[in-house]
Amino acid sequence: MERPPAKSLLPQSLRPADVETLLIGGLLPFLILWVLPGEARSTVIPLLFLPPLMLGLRYGSREGSVGAILTAAALAWVSHLQPGGLAAQVGIQIVGLVLTGMIAGEARDIWARRLARLSQQARYHQARLEQFTAAYQLLKVSHTQLEQRLVGAEPSLRSALELLKLREKRFLLDQHLPLSGTAQELITILAEQGNLYTAAIYEVNARGLVQTPAAARVGDPPELSVFNPLLRETLKTGLLTSANMGYEASHEHVIAVVPLVDSSGRIHAVVSINDMPFDRVNNDTFSLMAVLGKHMGDILARLTRSAADARDGMDLQTSLQRHWVDVNAYGLHVAVISCKVVDTARREALLALCSASGRGLDESWLCEDTTNRPVVIKVLPLTDQEGATAYIARLQKARVDGAPARNGLVTNLWLLGQHSDAGKLLAEIQSTCEIASFSSTVELTAPTAQEAVL
């Protein structure tokens, strides 16, 4: 049979502080005063202030006051039992003991309350900090995931234009009507670059009227109404119009209308966007699709010409006009450089170098100056002054027939954004390069590694 646990002899309500108060404040002073001889009692009177002082500082005003009262009671009791053994002014000493215990205890209580308040504030701020840390970590993870998603899926204007340029060469071989043979390809490119869920492309005739039904679709969008306010604004201005530009979304839930407009301002088709990711509904995405729409419009303009004219390529002035619109409307950088071959001994090699040193979007034209020296004019889209300068430096450093190319080339650089229109830039190029006429200009085409795939 198990023995029940031993019970404490002290009452349940008796705390260690109460025991120390009884022993230190009452019993210990009484024993000291009782044991010491009469002559020595007066010398220990100052030491009697220590018990109430210690109890007050350790436990507070309650224990300090009780300890002081017990010490004063011990002093008074011994003074009563053995009169003459203590100093005459016992009453003043008792008052001093009580004040010492009360003041020390009150000081301790004030400090304890202040510490408790500061501790409570610290716990509150610690809890808030933990909540903020958890929320911050969650937000950081979410932001990182969103950033990775955007970086991984963010369309590149250069890659989109390169893809469109490669597809353009295939379009020129198609014998169908301009939009009927290219509509699905064009809207697929827009859908890939803008991550569109549902969209449709509609032909616009020469009178500016939208032809229904849609020529091609992505997803299952509803038919676009000819009374849609976004469509009417796009047909009026020739610019991309979206619902976040102050136009309320109609019952058809059209987010934006993208015009396929050429450099002369003719709208060949429009693309209605009905659904796309929320994080893509921003000016960057719309600007990208607007630029693509203008380049697609130029492609459709070329397809409306005869097959022979379309295969002859685009003339330099039309190309400059197209890129000048991009520069002024969307702030893109476009550089134009000219390379005149002045070394007759290396004429063919230098000409081949200038013709072949093109990137995916670069456009090159070959013409002659008044002395029949070849001049290659290159348009470098999405290239600022620093990039164009580096391009010229690489071209001049190339070695042709054992000598640097710079010895046989004269190069010039223009920035399309520094001229008020494409015609003035063309006139400046003609004057600087001493070109008699651009009528015999031939567009140079350089094959790329991706053409075999696309």
- The CATH class of the largest domain is Alpha Beta
Task: Compute the number of helices.
Answer: 14
Strand coverage percent: 15-25%
Largest sheet: 5 strands, antiparallel
Concise overview:
By secondary structure, this protein is α+β, with helices and mostly antiparallel strands. The chain is built from 14 helices and 12 strands.
Which helices and strands appear, and what pairs or packs with what?
Elements: H1 16-35, H2 38-44, H3 50-59, H4 61-81, H5 90-153, H6 157-171, H7 183-194, E1 198-204, E2 210-218, H8 229-237, E3 241-242, E4 256-261, E5 267-275, H9 283-303, H10 307-311, H11 316-330, E6 334-341, H12 347-356, E7 363-368, E8 374-381, H13 385-397, E9 399-400, E10 403-404, E11 409-415, H14 422-433, E12 442-444
Antiparallel strand pairs: 1-2, 1-5, 3-4, 4-5, 6-8, 6-11, 7-8, 7-12, 9-10
Helix pairs in contact: 1-3, 1-4, 3-4, 3-5, 4-5, 6-7, 6-9, 7-9, 11-14
Architecture overview:
This protein has helices at 16-35, 38-44, 50-59, 61-81, 90-153, 157-171, 183-194, 229-237, 283-303, 307-311, 316-330, 347-356, 385-397, 422-433; strands at residues 198-204, 210-218, 241-242, 256-261, 267-275, 334-341, 363-368, 374-381, 399-400, 403-404, 409-415, 442-444. It has 454 residues and is of the alpha+beta class. It folds into three domains: 16-119, no CATH class; 157-308, GAF domain (Beta-Lactamase); 314-444, 2-Layer Sandwich (Alpha-Beta Plaits), CATH 3.30.70. A hairpin with a 2-residue loop joins β9 (399-400) and β10. The chain starts with 15 loop residues before the first helix and ends in a 10-residue tail after the last strand. The model is unreliable at 6-10 and 447-454 (pLDDT under 50).
